[in-house]
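## retry 2 of 3
previous attempt timed out at serialization; input unchanged, resubmitting
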Amino acid sequence: MVIELLTAHASVRKYKDNPLAKEEVVELVRAGQHAASSHFVQAYSVIHVTDDDKRKKLAELTKNPQQILSAGAVLVFCMDFHRLQKAANLLGKEIDLSHAENVLVGVTDVALFAQNVAIAAESKGYGICYIGGVRNAPDEISTLFNLPVGVAPMFAMTIGVPDEANEVKPRLPIEAIIHENSYDADKYDNILPVYDEIMNDYYLSRGSNRRDAAWSDSMAKFLGTPKRTHMKAFLDKQGFEFN
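## retry succeeded, writing output
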């Protein structure tokens, strides 16, 4: 059942030595293409990394060697307006990337596309993991894969036969997510302390990487300091010069 598949998701960071055939990757990507797309711009492309040297370099740049070197397939998902520029050029026209809305459209398109790929892969028994570490070195990764202006790598995904079974992380209670008719900020005062206890118990009891931590504290540390501040300059360089 689809809902059971979705609620069973857990990231896989270690895979068995079972490469995916190119035909399987094509099948997954084709499923990804059927995700919703704003105004049908389809502002995404994916790099299937099959070259060993490029995979090793990607593993180094993202600081994710175990995942990338053991995976059955490695995909780099990109926001892509270069193809849209080519389409406009066929008509003697240009497109304008200088609006924040275009970036939001592109990032959303890539995310929806990638999530379809992830669900398709998990439906076939594979495990997956998203790798945001691509944004640690976007310039170098763009050079590695010859990405032109108008294309920006957003994240990678590893896919393969799991060599580990991670527990499903407890999500926020549904009451924290659903607001009926208007946003209710007051309810978090009661919901979040309870959720912090649930997450702390999870982190202390899970099979690996145990730690004494609560969700609120982890989020405060993660979001309390700027990260990847180079991304604005990189996006400017790739043609996304928005204010």
